[in-house]
Design goal:
The protein has 99 residues and is α+β, with helices and mostly antiparallel strands. The protein is built from two helices and four strands. It has a four-stranded antiparallel sheet with strand order 2-3-1-4, covered by helices on one side. Helix 1 packs across helix 2.
Length: 99
């Protein structure tokens, strides 16, 4: 369940972007995010996972980049995203280039 209205508005404009630290970097596709609060919720949920050293959430693309000390456990990542109220649709095969 998203915190946002059908118009895509939200009560907060906060965003979450944790600083990246060296380690494994995995990109996931997450659906249902539409605003800064969504970024905050997903970022906080994933940052709390053991071994996660950084999280970058991009609502515009629906991509979440997780940096961790080792290979992340996809089942734990999925559970954290689900608990936050969003849907992890899988690992992103490639990150679109920004021009």
């Amino acid at each position: 369940m998203s915190c946002c209205s059908p118009e895509g508005t939200c009560s907060t404009g906060r965003t979450t972007e944790a600083a990246s630290v060296t380690g494994a970097t995995t990109v996931y596709a997450v659906s249902g995010m539409t605003c800064g609060h969504c970024e905050q919720a997903v970022g906080s949920a994933l940052s709390a996972l053991e071994g996660v050293t950084g999280v970058r959430v991009d609502v515009a693309t629906g991509l979440v980049t997780v940096t961790s000390r080792g290979e992340p456990d996809d089942a734990l990542v999925r559970a954290a995203v689900d608990e936050a109220g969003y849907e992890l649709t899988g690992r992103a095969d490639s990150v679109p280039a920004r021009h």
